[in-house]
Fold:
Amino acid sequence: MGSIGKSIQAFDHITLWVSNALQASAWFCVRFGFEPYAYRGLETGSRDVVSHVIKQNKIFYVFQSPLLPDNQEFGQHICRHGDGVKDIAFTVDNIENVIAQARAKGGKIVKDIWMESDEYGSVKMATIQTYGDTTHTLI
Structure:
């Protein structure tokens, strides 16, 4: 593999955009043995998107649905593809290097490096475009 491949440490999670995140995540829990892991929605201050995270061992799925009926980005994606994968995330060892290499090779950077922080710590992320409407988030 090239030097970008050496920077990828592990698969992190898959994000699915679905019409009903609660129902989809519950179905995976009942049918495939996943367990609820985390939640973001109105109760946690998210006004636009609800997220249900489920896990099984080291596998994490994030099911997301729009909370507002006029969310065009979600609506167009779900109309075009139905419920399905929007993003595949990977843990990388040097996000700055990976993004620089992607940019140098003509990759489309959807969202440049940003940082998320809470009381448990901070994490850097960036999102690149892959095939079609699917993206890869680097963590």
About this structure: The chain has four helices and eight strands. Helices lie at 3-7, 21-32, 72-81, 95-104.
